[in-house]
Every structure is written in C-alpha cells, then in structure tokens.
Amino acid sequence: MIKIAHFGSYDSNIGDNIALKVVRKSLEDSLRTNVEWKSIKLSSFSSYSINGAADYFTSINNTCDALLIGGGGLFEGGPYSTMPTGWKLPFDEQILSKIEIPIIVFAAGINYFRKVPKFNEKGKKAFISLLDRADLISLRNDGSIVSAEELLQTDKGIFNKIIEVPDPGLIIPENLHKTRIHSCKKQNGAFQQARNSGNQVNYGRFETEENMKSVYSFALDEGLFLLPHTPKDFQGFQGKNIISRELLLSQLPIDNVFDFIKIYHKFDYCIPMRGHGQLISTGINCPFVSLSTQDKVRDFADRNGFREFNVDIQEADWLSSLKKKISSLENDKDYLLNWYEIRDRNIATWNTQFHEFSKKVSNIIKEKE
Question: Do both 151 and 180 map to the same domain?
Fold first, then answer.
C-alpha cells in the first residue's frame, strides 16, 4: 500500500480542509489504489526548533513514499517571520536536507494580507529552498504565480518549475454541483463573512473603522444568511447564522467537509469574502458577487473572467456598487446568465489541468514505490 505524508492546515477552516480533501481524492483516483494518509498538521508546529523539525521529518523517510504539501494558503511570511524558519512552514534548507522521499507542493497558495508585511529575507530564503528541493510544484490560480515570480526574480530556473493549477476548491465532485437556476430570490442569499484574530489583519481587510461597521451591518440590513467558514467568522457579525459554531466544528474534520458543501445548496447566490467562499461557489455552480478584502479574492476574479462579479473594499463606493451588483444578480437575467457562462467556460479546463497534475504526482510516487 502507498503511504503519503500530507502536510496542511487541518481542522481550523472549512476551505483549507476542502482543499486537502479534494487533493487526496484526485490523487487516489489517479493512483487507482488505496492510499494510507499520514496527516501532518501545521498546528503541530506552532512551537518547534530547527533540530526538532529536522528529526521529525527524518522519521518519515522510512515510513512514507512521499511528502505532499497542500492545498491551502500555506505560504505566508509577515506575522510568522519570528518562527525558527522565518515563515509559516517548518521547512528550511537544513530541515529539507533530511527528507529523502519525493516532495510535492500541490495547489498551495501564497497568502498575503493587506497592510501586513510579506516575506523577510530569512523567510524568503526558506521558501525558495522548499521550491528548489521539491520534485513537483503547483500553485493555485489566485495570483499566487505572480507573487512567486516577484519572490523568485533571480531564480528563474525555480520559477520555471512551477505549474499553475486550479485551487482544489474549484474541483468539487459533480454530485455536489447545483443545478442552474433562471432567477435569484432576494431572500435566498448567503453572506460568507470573513474575520481574523489579529487586529492588524482585520484593519488591512476593512481599511477603515467605518468600512468595518458597514460590512458588519450589511448582511443584517439585507436580510442575508451568514455562512461562516471558521470559528473566527462568528466575531463581529450579526444576523441569521445558517450554521451554529458547534455544527461548524463538527464538520471541520477532513472526512466531513463535503457535508458542509451541501449547505450552499440552500441558497440561490452567495456574497463571499473568503477566497474559498468564492471558489466553492464557483466549483458547485452557485452564482456570486464577491467582496474582496484580500488581493487573492480580487485577483481570482480578475484572472478568471469574474471581474464584473467582484467589488473591492478599496473602491470609494464599494457598498453601493455591491448592492447594485447583487440587485443585478437578482433581477437581470443576462447578468446571471453571464456568470454561468464564465463558470462553464472555465470548469472543463480547470478539471483537465488539475487531473493532469495529479497524474504527474502519481507517476513520481509510483516510481518511488
């Protein structure tokens, strides 16, 4: 039996766990055999030493056939610059030198927040060391490839190794897709809110105190259902939560996340703030107008044809623009049809790209076996 060590951010965010689940499913389908998964949780490395991490990853050489990193927005510097490796992940040149099995980066994202520092030199060096050591690298299609190019300006050889693939949240099993509808009911929309623990990140999201208050009251004023993805999302927002904190926690584990997706079927449309709210909506065929408070949400829309279905909080008239576009989704059949046509044009290409990369991964693992 093939055994794969799978490193990721487990059990804290629905979006990350859906990404991890889809990566596993795609790879199992490609390998056409049973896989024993060893989950390596990012949260287990909230405190570690370089030598301790090196010893841990040395131990997987004799028990696993490969180390898989991703999906999810794992690549982050900024607040994690004080970590032993200088960035969010426990990988640097010393630790990576202990890993003898293939390393695959699968649909990971470079995750920046506005007004928050990106990578310092130590973190950048560690990030480059991981990409240099990896046997295969793919980054998700939310602008991460542009961020990687900026980080790898003098390392064109490493940059040329990177393959851009759809985020796993776009590759949802067909039995979970919604049927196309011809109109959206005003009372049947979901607001997929976003809140972070750190004040610096939140103020980077909302720009001003006034914006923050306006976003918080928006869903309540519009009568939308709130659709949190992580326990942090319950903070600050008032309104009709479609899911309780307890139910959310029960559906966070990787084996339960497809049940969470079914909640999206209760709605005609969604206003997502989180990247994975935007991606899941697209993947399951649920029309959206996204409210971007992170560049990755704006960039996904811009790079994949959905610019007219995104509003950025940095726009002076963002709230009136958001309400106008939601009204168009509810009342303008051509506007709604355009969303579906953009989605349909993309989805076949995305599936092909994703599964082709899975085949590349499976070939490397089979060679190791």
Answer: no
CATH of the domain at 283: 3.40.50
Do 166 and 245 fall within a single domain?
no
Task: Show Cβ contacts of residue 277 under 8 Å, excluding neighbours closer than 6 positions.
Answer: 15, 192, 194, 227, 229, 270, 288, 290
Per the structure, the complete domain to which residue 280 belongs is given by 174-345
Write a three-state SS string for 66-100. Answer: EEEECCEEEECCHHHCCCCCCCCCCCCHHHHCCCC
Report the predicted TM-score, pTM, of the whole model to 2 decimal places: 0.94
Is residue 334 located within the same domain as residue 352?
no
Token duo for residue 185: 């009911």
185 and 319 inside one domain:
yes
Q: Are 333 and 183 in contact, with CB atoms under 8 Å apart?
A: yes
Exposure on the CB side of residue 248, measured as CA atoms within 13 A = 18
Asked if residue 161 and residue 258 are part of one domain, the reply reads no
Same domain assignment for residues 124 and 139 = yes
**Nearest alpha carbon to residue 42 among 28, 24, 62, 56:** 56
Region of 368 (left: φ > 0; alpha: ψ -120 to 50; beta: rest) is alpha
**C-alpha to C-alpha distance for 6 and 18, rounded to whole angstroms:** 14
Distance in angstroms (rounded) separating the CA atoms of residues 364 and 369: 9
Longest dimension (CA), the chain: 60
24 with 151, same domain: the answer is: yes
What gap in Å lies between CA 359 and CA 345, rounded to an integer?
Answer: 23
Using CA atoms, how far apart are residues 203 and 212, in angstroms rounded to an integer? 8
The answer on pLDDT for 139 being more than 90 is yes
Residue 369: pLDDT band with limits 50, 70, 90: low
Assign 282 a pLDDT band (cuts: 50, 70, 90): very high
SS3 143: coil
Q: Left, alpha or beta for 143 (phi > 0: left; psi -120 to 50: alpha)?
A: left
How far separated are the first and last CA of the chain, in Å rounded? 9
